[in-house]
Write a structure and sequence with these properties.
Helices cover 34% and strands 38% of the residues. With 126 residues, it is α+β, with helices and mostly antiparallel strands. It has one domain (30-124). A four-stranded antiparallel beta sheet has the order 1-2-3-4, with helices on one face. It is elongated, with a radius of gyration of 26 Å. It starts with a helix and ends with a strand.
Length: 126
Protein backbone atom coordinates (compact mmCIF):
# COMPACT_ATOMS: atom_id res chain seq x y z
CA UNK A 1 0.00 0.00 0.00
CA UNK A 2 2.84 2.38 0.69
CA UNK A 3 3.97 2.11 -2.94
CA UNK A 4 0.55 3.02 -4.29
CA UNK A 5 0.70 6.34 -2.43
CA UNK A 6 4.01 7.23 -4.07
CA UNK A 7 3.11 6.40 -7.66
CA UNK A 8 0.56 9.17 -8.19
CA UNK A 9 3.12 11.78 -7.11
CA UNK A 10 5.90 10.47 -9.35
CA UNK A 11 4.26 11.42 -12.71
CA UNK A 12 3.39 14.86 -11.34
CA UNK A 13 7.01 15.46 -10.29
CA UNK A 14 8.19 14.20 -13.66
CA UNK A 15 5.87 16.58 -15.52
CA UNK A 16 6.83 19.53 -13.32
CA UNK A 17 10.55 18.91 -13.70
CA UNK A 18 10.14 18.51 -17.48
CA UNK A 19 8.24 21.77 -17.80
CA UNK A 20 10.90 23.52 -15.72
CA UNK A 21 13.63 22.28 -18.07
CA UNK A 22 11.68 23.38 -21.12
CA UNK A 23 11.07 26.85 -19.68
CA UNK A 24 14.76 27.23 -18.88
CA UNK A 25 15.83 26.15 -22.35
CA UNK A 26 13.41 28.62 -23.97
CA UNK A 27 14.99 31.57 -22.18
CA UNK A 28 16.00 34.22 -24.68
CA UNK A 29 19.66 34.21 -25.45
CA UNK A 30 21.33 37.55 -26.04
CA UNK A 31 22.90 37.92 -29.48
CA UNK A 32 26.70 37.74 -29.63
CA UNK A 33 28.65 41.02 -29.50
CA UNK A 34 28.68 42.98 -32.74
CA UNK A 35 32.49 42.76 -32.99
CA UNK A 36 32.28 38.94 -32.98
CA UNK A 37 29.72 38.70 -35.78
CA UNK A 38 31.57 41.38 -37.76
CA UNK A 39 34.73 39.26 -37.61
CA UNK A 40 32.73 36.29 -38.95
CA UNK A 41 31.36 38.40 -41.81
CA UNK A 42 34.91 39.52 -42.68
CA UNK A 43 35.95 35.85 -42.78
CA UNK A 44 33.04 35.13 -45.10
CA UNK A 45 34.10 38.03 -47.35
CA UNK A 46 37.65 36.64 -47.55
CA UNK A 47 36.32 33.17 -48.38
CA UNK A 48 34.02 34.50 -51.11
CA UNK A 49 36.87 36.58 -52.58
CA UNK A 50 39.20 33.57 -52.64
CA UNK A 51 36.55 31.26 -54.16
CA UNK A 52 35.46 33.79 -56.81
CA UNK A 53 39.03 34.42 -57.96
CA UNK A 54 39.74 30.67 -58.11
CA UNK A 55 36.52 30.02 -60.05
CA UNK A 56 37.79 31.64 -63.26
CA UNK A 57 38.90 29.24 -65.98
CA UNK A 58 42.62 29.96 -66.59
CA UNK A 59 42.32 28.75 -70.20
CA UNK A 60 40.26 31.84 -70.99
CA UNK A 61 43.16 34.14 -70.15
CA UNK A 62 40.97 36.36 -67.98
CA UNK A 63 42.41 37.72 -64.77
CA UNK A 64 39.81 38.63 -62.14
CA UNK A 65 40.59 40.46 -58.92
CA UNK A 66 38.01 40.84 -56.16
CA UNK A 67 38.80 43.61 -53.68
CA UNK A 68 36.84 43.89 -50.45
CA UNK A 69 35.74 47.50 -50.33
CA UNK A 70 33.86 47.30 -47.01
CA UNK A 71 32.21 45.00 -44.50
CA UNK A 72 29.41 46.60 -42.50
CA UNK A 73 27.33 45.19 -39.66
CA UNK A 74 24.29 47.00 -38.32
CA UNK A 75 22.26 45.91 -35.28
CA UNK A 76 18.52 45.38 -35.62
CA UNK A 77 17.31 45.67 -32.01
CA UNK A 78 13.63 45.32 -32.93
CA UNK A 79 14.25 42.03 -34.75
CA UNK A 80 15.15 39.19 -32.33
CA UNK A 81 15.09 36.56 -35.09
CA UNK A 82 17.69 38.47 -37.13
CA UNK A 83 19.60 40.71 -34.69
CA UNK A 84 22.22 41.84 -37.24
CA UNK A 85 22.17 42.92 -40.89
CA UNK A 86 25.43 42.84 -42.80
CA UNK A 87 26.71 44.05 -46.15
CA UNK A 88 29.86 43.11 -48.03
CA UNK A 89 30.90 45.44 -50.85
CA UNK A 90 33.35 44.25 -53.51
CA UNK A 91 35.12 45.94 -56.38
CA UNK A 92 35.64 43.37 -59.14
CA UNK A 93 38.20 44.08 -61.82
CA UNK A 94 38.69 41.84 -64.83
CA UNK A 95 41.42 42.00 -67.43
CA UNK A 96 40.90 40.22 -70.73
CA UNK A 97 43.63 39.99 -73.38
CA UNK A 98 42.59 41.28 -76.80
CA UNK A 99 44.40 41.74 -80.10
CA UNK A 100 45.11 45.41 -79.43
CA UNK A 101 45.95 45.16 -75.72
CA UNK A 102 44.04 44.36 -72.55
CA UNK A 103 40.39 45.19 -71.95
CA UNK A 104 39.70 46.15 -68.34
CA UNK A 105 36.28 46.13 -66.72
CA UNK A 106 35.48 47.35 -63.21
CA UNK A 107 32.28 46.43 -61.35
CA UNK A 108 31.02 47.22 -57.87
CA UNK A 109 28.85 44.61 -56.17
CA UNK A 110 27.10 44.59 -52.84
CA UNK A 111 25.84 41.48 -51.02
CA UNK A 112 23.48 41.54 -48.02
CA UNK A 113 23.42 39.04 -45.17
CA UNK A 114 21.34 38.33 -42.07
CA UNK A 115 22.80 36.93 -38.84
CA UNK A 116 20.90 33.76 -37.90
CA UNK A 117 21.17 33.05 -34.16
CA UNK A 118 19.85 29.49 -34.58
CA UNK A 119 22.75 28.44 -36.83
CA UNK A 120 25.28 30.99 -35.59
CA UNK A 121 26.06 31.98 -39.17
CA UNK A 122 25.56 34.70 -41.76
CA UNK A 123 22.92 33.80 -44.34
CA UNK A 124 22.51 35.53 -47.71
CA UNK A 125 19.51 37.83 -47.91
CA UNK A 126 17.79 37.42 -51.23
Amino acid sequence: MVLSNRFPRFPILLVLSGSFLVSCSEAKKAPPPQADVEALLKQRAETEKREAEADVNPNLGVKVTWTIQSVEVRPQPANEAEPYFGTIKFVIQSETPELDGVATERLERSYDYIWDPATGAWLPKY
